[in-house]
C-alpha cells in the first residue's frame, strides 16, 4: 500500500507541476470569462456602426424608418445614379434604394454597399420594411395597431409530472440540460485523462524505466498508482476550474459592471432572434414571457434531486474513468510508441463516441425507452447514458443494476488491463496483434 | 555460504526456450560473471531472479530461503536498457526510487548525499535527467541501483556507455561494495571486460549453462601448458618433450609457441632454451575466457 501511495504521489506531483497543466488550469477560466465579457463589450462598442443612406422614390418609408441605437438612417434625394455617387464618397455602411411602388405589391428594394452586407443588417432592414408595409396596410384597411397588439396572445406551457410521488414541475429543458452537462464532462474527462494514462505508460516503456520500477513494485501497483494519480490530477484541475471560473466571472462583473451577454439558452427560451427589433410593448411582453420561463426553469431546477444527481455524477465520473482508464493503460503497454496506438484505441473510443451521440438523439427523446435502459446498464456506455437519464428520474433498481454492472465492469477491465500490462511493458520492438493480446491474458508470468 | 542458488530453472516462451534446466551457485561476497552471447538467456535469468517474471520449473534460493517478494529490497538491479524519468530532477528521482525500495525519506536523503559527493554529481542534482549527458545518467542510475545497500547487486552490461575514466570510477565502486560484503552479478556478452574483475563465472549459451566455477579453477583446467618465448638466436628444438606449435623469425629475433609434453615443467623448457638462445620473454599462454567459451561451445555443438 505504501508503494502505491508513493507512485500516486509521483504521478500527481510531476503532472501538477508541469507548465502545460498550470497554463491550462488558469487559461480556461480566463477564456470562459472572455467568452462572457467580449460579446457584451462588443455590443456596447458597436453603437456607431451602421449608417444607411436611404433613397426613397416611393415616398412611403423615408420618414418612417426609425433611427436606432446602432442603426442610423440618412434620407437623401435625387436619382439612383447620383445617390450611388454620393454613397461612394461617404464612409457609410450601405445605400438602401426604394423604387416607386404599389403598396400591395412591394418589389424592387435594393441595398448597395462597398463591402458585403452582413446578413443581420439585411434581415433587420427587411424586418423594418415589412413592418412598415404592414402598418400602411392596416391603416388602409382601418385596423388600429394598438388594438391588434392587445389581441395578440403569448403562452408558454408548463409541463408537470404526475407520478406516484405527486406533482412537480418538469421542465424538459432544465432536466436534459443538467444531464447533458454532466455527460459531457464525464466524456471529456475520460478522454483527456485516459489518453494521459496511455501516454504515461508509453513514456515509461520507451524510457525503459519500467524494468527498474518493476523490480521494486508489482506491475499492478504501478498501473493502479498511475490511474489513481492521474484521476487526482483531473479532479484537481476540475475543481480549480470551477473555483477559478466563479472567481473570475464575479471579479469581471464587479470590475466592469458588465452584464453578461445572454447565453444562447436564454435566447432560445425567449424565442427571440438576434437583431430583431421589437417595439416597446412587444419587448415588455417578451420580457414577461422570459421571466415566466425563467421562473419555471428555476423551480424545475429546485425540483431536480440535486444530491442524487451529484452523487451519481461522482460515481459515474470515477467509475467510467476507472473502466476506461485501465483499458487506455493496457493500450499503452501493448505498443511501443504513440503512432501504433490507433488500432487499439478504435474499439475503446467507439462505445464512448456512440453513447455520446445517442445521448442526444435517442435518450433525450425517450429517456425511459428500451435503448436508453440497455445502454445505461452496459458498463461501457452507462457512465454517459445514465447521467443523461438520472435527472429525468430513474427507478432505484435500474440505478442499482447499472452501478453494480459498472463496478463489475471496471473490475473486469482492470483485470484484463493488468494481464496485458504485465506482459506488454517488458515487450519491445514487436507489433502486437489482437490474437497475441488475447494470449497474454493467460500467460503465466 | 551462497547468496544465490539456482536449481534446475527452465523458462519457455511461446515459440522458444529461454532457459533450459540451468543450475549454479553464486557464493556470498564474490563478483560473479554471467557470461554468454546475446540472446543466450542471461536477461531471462536475471528477470527471474529479480522476480519480474517467474520460472516455469526449478527453484531459486536466496540466502538459503526460497525466493519471495520481500527479497526484492535486498537486491539492486541495473538493467541493460537504462531508463529514468526524463522530466524528473536527479535528486527527486533518486529519492523516489529509494523509497520504492523501502527506504525512509530521511534515510534515503542521507545516503543520496554521500553518493552524490563520491560520484561528483553535486552540480547536477537539481537538473532534469534529460539535461544530463549519457554517462551522467548512467551514474545516476548506478546510484539508484545500490542506494538501498542491497546484499545482491545485479548489473546488466554495466560498462556500456561509460568513457574509460567513468568506467574506472564505477569499477572502483563495485570493488568497494564487494569489500563491504555485497555480492555482485555481472551480466555481459563482452567477456574480456570482466575477466579481471570476476571471481566466479557461469557461461550460458542457447538457454543452457555450458560451464561454471571460479575463474582460477577454470583457467587451470583449460590451460594447455603452452608458453610463448621471444629471444635472439637460431631456435632449433629437437627434444621430443617440447612441441613447437608456431615459430617466426625476423632479423634474428624469434617468437615461438611451445607446448610441454610428457609432464615436463616450465623450468625444464627454460633450462633447455637458455643453453641455446638468448631469452627475452617467457610467458605462459593462458586461454582467455573467450577462448574457453568458444572451445566449449564448439564441443557442445559437436556432441
UniProtKB/TrEMBL annotation, chain A:
<keyword id="KW-1133">Transmembrane helix</keyword>
<keyword id="KW-0812">Transmembrane</keyword>
<feature type="transmembrane region" description="Helical">
    <location>
        <begin position="304"/>
        <end position="324"/>
    </location>
</feature>
<feature type="transmembrane region" description="Helical">
    <location>
        <begin position="21"/>
        <end position="43"/>
    </location>
</feature>
<feature type="transmembrane region" description="Helical">
    <location>
        <begin position="371"/>
        <end position="388"/>
    </location>
</feature>
<dbReference type="GO" id="GO:0016020">
    <property type="term" value="C:membrane"/>
</dbReference>
<feature type="domain" description="ABC-2 type transporter transmembrane">
    <location>
        <begin position="19"/>
        <end position="418"/>
    </location>
</feature>
<feature type="transmembrane region" description="Helical">
    <location>
        <begin position="238"/>
        <end position="258"/>
    </location>
</feature>
<dbReference type="Pfam" id="PF12698">
    <property type="entry name" value="ABC2_membrane_3"/>
</dbReference>
<dbReference type="InterPro" id="IPR013525">
    <property type="entry name" value="ABC2_TM"/>
</dbReference>
<feature type="transmembrane region" description="Helical">
    <location>
        <begin position="400"/>
        <end position="421"/>
    </location>
</feature>
<keyword id="KW-0472">Membrane</keyword>
<dbReference type="GO" id="GO:0140359">
    <property type="term" value="F:ABC-type transporter activity"/>
</dbReference>
<protein>
    <submittedName>
        <fullName>ABC transporter permease</fullName>
    </submittedName>
</protein>
<feature type="transmembrane region" description="Helical">
    <location>
        <begin position="344"/>
        <end position="364"/>
    </location>
</feature>
<feature type="transmembrane region" description="Helical">
    <location>
        <begin position="172"/>
        <end position="197"/>
    </location>
</feature>
From TrEMBL, chain B:
<dbReference type="Pfam" id="PF13732">
    <property type="entry name" value="DrrA1-3_C"/>
</dbReference>
<dbReference type="GO" id="GO:0005524">
    <property type="term" value="F:ATP binding"/>
</dbReference>
<dbReference type="InterPro" id="IPR025302">
    <property type="entry name" value="DrrA1/2-like_C"/>
</dbReference>
<dbReference type="InterPro" id="IPR017871">
    <property type="entry name" value="ABC_transporter-like_CS"/>
</dbReference>
<dbReference type="GO" id="GO:0016887">
    <property type="term" value="F:ATP hydrolysis activity"/>
</dbReference>
<feature type="domain" description="ABC transporter">
    <location>
        <begin position="4"/>
        <end position="231"/>
    </location>
</feature>
<keyword id="KW-0547">Nucleotide-binding</keyword>
<protein>
    <submittedName>
        <fullName>ABC transporter ATP-binding protein</fullName>
    </submittedName>
</protein>
<dbReference type="InterPro" id="IPR003439">
    <property type="entry name" value="ABC_transporter-like_ATP-bd"/>
</dbReference>
<dbReference type="InterPro" id="IPR027417">
    <property type="entry name" value="P-loop_NTPase"/>
</dbReference>
<keyword id="KW-0067">ATP-binding</keyword>
<dbReference type="InterPro" id="IPR003593">
    <property type="entry name" value="AAA+_ATPase"/>
</dbReference>
<dbReference type="InterPro" id="IPR051782">
    <property type="entry name" value="ABC_Transporter_VariousFunc"/>
</dbReference>
<dbReference type="Pfam" id="PF00005">
    <property type="entry name" value="ABC_tran"/>
</dbReference>
<keyword id="KW-0813">Transport</keyword>
Amino acid at each position: 500500500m505504501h508503494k502505491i501511495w508513493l507512485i500516486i504521489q509521483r504521478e500527481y506531483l510531476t503532472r501538477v507541476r508541469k507548465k502545460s497543466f498550470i497554463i491550462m488550469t488558469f487559461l480556461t477560466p480566463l477564456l470562459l470569462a472572455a467568452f462572457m465579457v467580449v460579446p457584451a463589450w462588443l455590443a456596447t462598442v458597436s453603437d456607431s456602426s451602421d449608417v444607411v443612406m436611404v433613397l426613397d422614390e416611393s415616398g412611403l418609408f423615408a420618414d418612417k424608418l426609425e433611427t436606432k441605437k446602432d442603426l442610423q438612417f440618412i434620407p437623401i434625394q435625387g436619382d439612383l445614379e447620383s445617390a450611388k455617387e454620393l454613397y461612394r464618397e461617404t464612409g457609410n455602411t450601405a445605400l438602401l434604394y426604394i423604387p416607386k411602388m404599389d403598396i400591395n405589391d412591394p418589389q424592387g428594394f435594393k441595398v448597395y454597399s462597398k463591402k458585403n452586407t452582413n446578413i443581420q443588417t439585411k434581415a433587420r432592414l427587411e424586418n423594418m420594411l415589412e413592418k412598415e408595409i404592414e402598418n400602411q396596410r392596416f391603416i388602409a384597411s382601418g385596423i388600429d395597431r394598438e388594438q391588434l397588439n392587445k389581441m395578440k396572445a403569448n403562452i408558454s406551457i408548463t409541463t408537470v409530472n404526475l407520478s406516484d410521488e405527486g406533482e412537480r414541475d418538469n421542465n424538459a429543458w432544465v432536466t436534459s440540460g443538467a444531464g447533458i452537462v454532466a455527460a459531457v464532462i464525464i466524456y471529456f474527462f475520460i478522454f483527456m485523462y485516459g489518453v494521459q494514462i496511455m501516454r504515461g505508460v508509453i513514456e515509461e516503456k520507451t524510457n525503459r524505466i519500467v524494468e527498474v520500477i518493476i523490480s521494486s513494485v508489482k506491475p499492478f501497483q504501478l498501473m493502479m498508482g498511475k490511474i489513481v494519480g492521474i484521476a487526482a490530477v483531473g479532479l484537481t484541475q476540475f475543481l480549480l476550474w470551477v473555483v477559478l471560473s466563479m472567481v473570475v466571472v464575479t471579479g469581471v462583473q464587479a470590475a466592469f459592471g458588465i452584464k453578461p451577454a445572454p447565453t444562447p439558452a436564454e435566447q432560445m427560451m425567449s424565442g427571440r432572434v438576434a437583431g430583431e427589433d421589437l417595439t416597446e410593448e412587444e419587448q415588455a411582453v417578451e420580457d414577461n414571457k422570459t421571466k415566466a420561463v425563467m421562473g419555471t426553469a428555476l423551480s424545475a431546477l429546485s425540483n431536480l434531486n440535486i444530491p442524487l444527481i451529484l452523487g451519481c455524477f461522482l460515481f459515474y465520473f470515477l467509475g467510467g474513468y476507472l473502466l476506461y482508464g485501465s483499458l487506455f493503460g493496457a493500450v499503452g503497454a501493448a505498443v511501443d510508441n504513440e503512432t501504433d496506438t490507433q488500432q487499439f484505441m478504435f474499439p475503446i473510443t467507439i462505445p464512448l463516441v456512440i453513447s455520446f451521440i445517442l445521448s442526444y438523439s435517442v435518450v433525450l427523446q425517450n429517456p425511459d425507452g428500451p435503448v436508453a435502459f440497455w445502454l445505461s446498464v452496459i458498463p461501457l456506455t452507462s457512465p454517459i447514458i445514465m447521467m443523461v437519464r438520472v435527472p429525468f428520474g430513474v427507478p432505484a433498481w435500474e440505478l442499482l443494476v447499472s452501478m453494480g454492472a459498472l463496478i463489475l465492469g471496471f473490475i473486469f477491465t482492470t483485470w484484463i488491463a493488468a494481464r496485458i500490462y504485465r506482459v506488454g511493458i517488458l515487450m519491445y520492438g514487436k507489433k502486437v496483434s489482437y490474437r497475441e493480446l488475447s494470449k497474454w491474458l493467460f500467460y503465466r508470468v | 555460504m551462497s547468496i544465490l542458488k539456482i536449481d534446475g530453472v527452465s523458462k519457455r516462451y511461446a515459440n522458444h526456450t529461454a532457459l533450459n534446466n540451468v543450475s549454479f551457485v553464486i557464493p556470498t561476497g564474490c563478483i560473479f560473471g554471467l557470461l554468454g552471447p546475446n540472446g543466450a538467456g542471461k536477461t531471462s535469468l536475471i528477470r527471474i531472479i529479480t522476480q519480474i517474471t517467474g520460472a516455469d520449473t526449478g527453484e531459486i534460493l536466496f540466502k538459503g530461503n526460497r525466493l519471495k517478494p520481500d527479497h526484492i529490497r535486498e537486491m539492486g538491479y541495473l538493467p541493460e536498457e537504462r531508463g529514468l524519468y526524463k522530466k524528473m530532477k536527479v535528486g527527486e528521482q533518486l529519492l523516489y526510487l529509494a523509497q520504492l525500495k523501502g527506504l525512509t525519506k530521511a534515510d534515503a536523503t542521507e545516503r543520496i548525499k554521500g553518493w552524490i559527493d563520491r560520484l561528483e554529481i553535486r552540480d547536477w542534482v537539481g537538473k532534469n535527467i534529460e539535461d544530463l549527458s549519457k554517462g551522467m545518467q548512467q551514474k545516476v542510475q548506478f546510484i539508484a541501483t545500490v542506494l538501498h545497500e542491497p546484499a545482491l547487486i545485479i548489473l546488466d552490461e554495466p560498462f556500456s556507455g561509460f568513457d574509460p575514466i567513468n568506467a574506472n570510477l564505477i569499477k572502483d565502486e563495485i570493488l568497494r561494495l564487494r569489500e563491504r560484503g555485497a555480492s555482485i552479478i555481472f551480466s555481459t556478452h563482452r567477456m574480456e571486460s570482466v575477466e579481471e574483475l570476476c571471481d566466479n563465472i557461469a557461461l550460458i549459451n542457447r538457454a543452457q549453462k555450458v560451464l561454471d566455477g571460479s575463474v582460477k579453477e577454470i583457467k587451470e583446467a583449460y590451460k594447455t601448458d603452452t608458453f610463448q618465448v621471444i629471444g635472439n638466436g637460431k631456435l632449433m628444438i629437437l627434444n621430443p618433450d617440447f612441441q613447437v606449435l608456431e615459430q617466426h623469425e625476423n632479423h634474428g629475433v624469434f617468437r615461438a609457441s611451445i607446448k610441454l609434453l610428457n609432464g615436463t615443467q616450465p623450468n625444464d623448457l627454460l633450462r633447455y632454451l637458455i643453453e641455446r638462445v638468448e631469452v627475452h620473454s617467457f610467458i605462459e599462454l593462458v586461454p582467455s575466457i573467450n577462448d574457453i567459451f568458444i572451445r566449449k561451445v564448439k564441443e557442445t555443438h559437436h556432441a
